[in-house]
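[recover] target loaded
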């Protein structure tokens, strides 16, 4: 049951990030709500491309958001930011992920478990856990229209830091 609550909390964190960015970008983009929403979606899809960032709060997370936001604002100002999916569409897609994919997102991306920890939680061998993790990360990247970065197999305390 805690996995369900953690997944819902993650979706809420994404929503709040999207809404806060849209509000900030609205003013930075001189009241262009459509551009502000596109920048916010660019940030969210960028986060999905490197989902291990969701283990972090504070500066690592907000720094990644700010970096992606600045890139999006520059693209919006130069009219090269493409239209993409809306927040409602993305949320609906994330809500429809399989329970197995949701488990992997919570355990690997939010809780930060390495393949051994993931295997123990999923009650499978490490190779199967790694395959499930990779498939889920690929699917997240596909959802966001990005190619996810390769993931380290280390636990964050062993030197895995967000980029």
């Amino acid at each position: 049951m805690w996995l369900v609550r953690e997944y819902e909390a993650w979706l809420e964190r994404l929503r709040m990030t999207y809404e806060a960015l849209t509000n900030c970008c609205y003013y930075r983009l001189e009241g262009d709500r459509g551009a502000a929403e596109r920048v916010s979606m660019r940030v969210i899809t960028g986060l999905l491309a490197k989902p291990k960032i969701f283990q972090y709060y504070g500066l690592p997370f907000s720094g990644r958001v700010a970096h992606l936001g600045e890139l999006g604002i520059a693209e919006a100002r130069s009219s090269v930011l493409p239209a993409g999916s809306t927040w409602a569409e993305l949320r609906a897609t994330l809500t429809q992920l399989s329970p197995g994919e949701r488990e992997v997102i919570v355990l690997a991306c939010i809780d930060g478990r390495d393949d051994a920890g993931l295997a123990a939680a999923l009650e499978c061998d490490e190779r199967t856990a790694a395959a499930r993790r990779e498939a889920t990360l690929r699917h997240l990247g596909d959802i966001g229209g990005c190619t996810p970065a390769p993931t380290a197999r280390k636990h964050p305390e062993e030197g895995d830091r967000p980029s």
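[recover] notes: Residues 2-158 form one domain.
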